[in-house]
Design brief:
Layout lengths: L8 E2 L2 E2 L4 H12 L4 E3 H8 L8 H16 L9 E4 L3 E4 L2 E5 L24 E5 L10 H23 L4 H6 L9 E4 L3 E2 L7 H15 L6 E2 L2 H4 L9 H8 L3 E10 L2 E10 L4 E11 L3 H15 L15 H15 L4 H17 L4 H14 L6 H18 L4 H15 L2 H14 L4 H13 L3 H14 L4 H13 L3 H14 L4 H13 L3 H8 L9 H13 L3 H14 L7 H10 L3 H14 L20 H9 L5
Length: 628
């Protein structure tokens, strides 16, 4: 155990251990064989002004410590429980002094129990007796080693003869330029509070993503590691990041405590750890504190912003529930639940800008997939504008409004302005990067669209939405092989990504790989798949020459259209693939009147090439005022 670096290792392999269990182990190792009382642990870890469920918190920390040590309370090898009194470390403890306090810049808040009586590093062996002692010869060697280490530390600090560079090399100058925030662990013991821990993770990611020059993995990808047992180096390699932020959230009433630590993902070295506690009203300031702590360790600065205002605790809780519903949404009902929670938040605090921006995104997610654009897009626009009236510095609100201007209003200059502003405010906003790629693709700037989409994918590599859209931009740019490659990789992540499969099918059609296209398209069926995806798949079936099958699917979609919204744009591409130009033009004119979100593809969609010379089709494009 390295007390200064905050690391626990077994056979040289670092064991992940949260801050509080680590602190408890440190206290026990200082007094091997002695009882450390529960009251002593309370005073050290949970001071009198900290509002927590002490018994639950301590028991939870002890259980995590036992898990890390590989033992149970029934058969302890290291940690003995004395009921209602405390705990005792029953293994042998050997002190291993380190060179100098200057060797490590890591810090664990409130870990004031570390003392020189144990040294900076300790090693423990499971034994039956707790009365371990060192021989005289061992103590002499330790003293000599400590003196030599101190001399070496002095020479390094003075950089005598360039010693520091020669010994420390590149490690001393290593910079963290990319990080991932793993889902913060919920220590409340109440599964119903998972939404709160997830919300804190989301907000911390948002804060860190504002750092210029730092690539921060977005929440969709980060959440895939919830409850993971993968090691930090393994996660770092998968996400291609230099650092990993991990931590815990403990909430008791309106008191919130966040403990976070930064780990170098290549060396698995603990860089920094800190704990923060605030009232729920000051939760925004708390999030900024945590992000600021990480930023200081990587020698970066958060973008300047207004002084965080206090929030209404009940409003913030409703907002987090809304975000949780939105982020996990797989149905229209989920999106409606998110809107209900955002409205509840605004009922408690009408000036809560974040709730308005969240509501805007929920409305946007409904358009074309569940509801007609005219039914929800004006609501999304209204919510986004209200959010910006309250806080013009919200990247998310600029993104929502820019997307409305792009896919609904077709106001190209306004769309560009808001989407660029969203990225400027938060370079790590992967969704804004994706929406801007959509804008560039719609205008025919395909090379720029590809580059922007790749940035979005680097920020959120496990997002199926961004992955699917990335392939679609390649499709619209007529890079069919790249589109096929991207969509196949997306399906490796989730075989039920029907949007990915339909985009794959139409790309295979354009590559004249018709049997493969037909195989993919036939896997997209009602009611499992959304009508929009089924309509796109039907286009591929028609283009693959299966006329009767495509017509039967088209009839089902038209019948369904009497009960719910079915995108007329994709009906038009199906009619065209079947050779019915008149019905194709009629459906596209309906799509124009409805402001279908797919209409931004019309300028370059290869499926519409047979209509390019048609005056009625040209009139549609002119009315959309595409910039030349």
């Amino acid at each position: 155990m390295d007390l200064r670096a905050g690391e626990l290792r077994k056979h040289g392999v670092r064991i992940r251990l949260q801050t509080q269990p680590f602190q408890i182990l440190g206290m026990l190792l200082q007094r091997p064989g002695e009882v450390v009382t529960r009251e002593e642990l309370r005073q050290a870890l949970w001071p009198g002004d900290t509002f927590v469920d002490f018994d639950h918190g301590l028991n939870n920390a002890i259980n995590r410590l036992r898990e890390a040590l590989g033992e149970s309370a029934e058969s302890p090898r290291f940690l003995e429980t004395l009921p209602r009194r405390g705990y005792r470390f029953i293994g042998a403890v050997e002190s291993i002094p380190s060179a100098s306090p200057q060797d490590s810049g890591a810090h664990v808040e409130n870990f004031s129990t570390t003392s020189s009586t144990v040294g900076d590093k300790v090693a423990a062996l499971p034994v039956k007796s707790s009365k371990a002692s060192l021989s005289l010869r061992a103590r002499l060697w330790i003293a000599v080693g400590a003196g030599a280490a101190a001399l070496l530390a002095l020479l390094i600090s003075l950089n005598a003869g360039g010693l520091r560079q020669r010994l420390l090399g590149a490690a001393a100058t290593r910079r963290i330029q990319s990080i991932a925030v793993l889902p913060l662990e919920n220590l409340s013991g109440d599964p119903s509070q998972e939404y709160f821990a997830d919300g804190m993770t989301d907000e911390l990611i948002t804060q860190l993503a504002q750092i210029n020059g730092l690539r921060v993995i977005s929440r969709t990808t980060a959440m895939q590691y919830k409850g993971t047992r993968k090691s930090v180096p393994e996660i770092g390699r998968e996400l291609h990041v230099d650092g990993i932020v991990e931590g815990t959230v403990f909430r008791s009433g309106e008191q919130v405590r966040i403990s976070a630590q930064l780990v170098d993902s290549s060396t698995d070295q603990h860089v920094w750890a800190q704990s923060y506690e605030r009232d729920l009203r000051d939760i925004v300031a708390l999030q900024k504190e945590v992000a600021g702590g990480v930023a200081r360790q990587i020698r970066a600065n958060l973008l300047p912003g207004e002084q965080p205002r206090a929030v209404n605790p009940q409003a913030y809780e409703a907002y987090l529930r809304g975000r949780h519903d939105l982020n996990a949404a797989t149905s229209k009902a989920d999106l409606e639940d998110s809107i209900t929670n955002f409205r509840s938040a605004l009922g408690k605090d009408p000036q809560f800008a974040l709730a308005y921006s969240g509501m805007a995104l929920s409305y946007l997610a409904q358009a074309d997939y569940y509801l007609a654009p005219h039914e929800v897009m004006p609501k999304a626009e209204e919510a986004a504008r209200k959010a910006l009236e309250l806080d013009d510095g919200l990247s998310e609100a600029h993104d929502a409004l820019g997307y409305v201007e792009l896919i609904y209003r077709w106001d190209w200059p306004a769309a560009q302005q808001h989407l660029q502003r969203a990225i400027q405010l938060n370079p790590g906003n992967a969704l804004a990067q994706d929406h801007y790629a959509n804008y560039l693709s719609a205008l025919g700037h395909h090379a720029e669209a590809f580059a922007t989409s790749e940035r979005a994918r680097a920020l959120d590599p496990l997002s199926l939405l961004i992955q699917a859209n990335n392939g679609m931009y390649f499709f619209l740019g007529r890079e069919y092989d790249r589109a096929i490659e991207v969509e196949r990789k997306a399906l490796e992540l989730d075989a039920k990504c029907y949007t990915c499969r339909t985009y794959l099918a139409i790309a295979l059609v354009q590559s004249r790989r018709l049997p493969e296209a037909l195989k993919e398209a036939r896997l997209v069926r009602l009611p499992e798949a959304n009508p929009l995806d089924v309509a796109t798949a039907t286009t591929a079936i028609a283009a693959a020459g299966q006329r009767a099958e495509a017509e039967a699917s088209l009839r089902r979609l038209l019948q369904l259209g009497k009960q719910r919204w079915v995108c007329p744009y994709e009906l038009g591409t199906t009619y065209l693939a079947l050779g019915d130009r008149e019905q194709a033009l009629h459906s596209l004119e309906n799509a124009y009147e409805a402001h279908s979100i797919c209409m931004t593809w019309a300028k370059d969609d290869p499926r519409l090439d047979p209509l390019r010379s048609e005056p009625r089709f040209q009139a549609i494009l002119q009315r959309m005022s595409f910039p030349q």
